[in-house]
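Hallway conversation turned thread

IA: we were arguing at lunch whether anyone had actually written out Response regulator end to end. Turns out nobody had. So, for the record, here is the sequence (302 residues) and right after it the structure tokens. Reply here if something looks off.
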Amino acid sequence: MASFCIIDDDPAVRAMLANIIEHSGLGEVVGTARGGEEGVRVVLETSADVVLIDWLMPDQDGLETLEQLKEQGFGGKCVMISQIEDREMVGEAYRSGIEFFIRKPINRIEVESVLSRVSEHFELSQYLNELKSSLSRLDRLGGTGRANASAAKRKSAAEVLRPIYMNLGILGEAGCTDITAIMEGLVQRGEQGDFPPLRQLYEEAAAHRGGAPHVNDRETKAVEQRIRRTVIVALSHLASIGLTDYGNPKFEHYAPLYFDFEDVRAKMKEIDEHQGEGRTKVSIKKFLQVMYLEMLDGLEAG
């Protein structure tokens, strides 16, 4: 469960937000502050996961406070509390790292809705961090033993991926062959650190499919299109499940894990209103990163 810190110069607002958070079961309020300077100290002392920051405060504004927090290593989620409607200022806030807004005057329903999404994002980040730890555990093997273990993992990669494809509703899609080739290549190299550029992954998948070390742009583009179509099918499948049963375990697990919440909601609305297929927004890189980490977790468990 996420821990919250509230920074606002109005004591009534602080009390109201704390009451909503704790009585709605959204998390625990571990600290409050009346201004930005005090807020920086309290956040760092309490190691809060989520910070609610008032935009306009007497000593310094919310964006200045956020900047100071980042400079001192804060990596949690940030929610801005504001009456400001100016689009340019709101855009500046998003660019500064603010992920959500709560507008004044405070509305309980809005606070619960916004902070429940923030908590979902926090829990997702925790889950991904747990999956990433498998990377370091995989690195324990060495020498011939590591080579043999890697070979075994490569053979079982497709087996581990199959139930994931089934749950995402994409088993049998042409792009799954390309995705499997990418995943096997990553495991073979023992990929760690920064995730490779997408174009590099597309080129490797094209080379694997064609059986040749060199590929042209047309082949690489074909891989990209197949994977994009497959990811969109997965998004549509999960959105359809969410419309029917928002509490479905597959939807609850895979939708926020593989896709941004806003993209899932947009696809659900598109399906619900029987709109034509528009330009669906998806993050291919996030999708492949999450699948790689889930696959590693499955390989190690197996």
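OS: looked through it. Confidence is low (pLDDT under 50) at residues 140-155.
IA: good, adding that to the notes. The domain at 3-127 is CATH 3.40.50.2300 (Rossmann fold).
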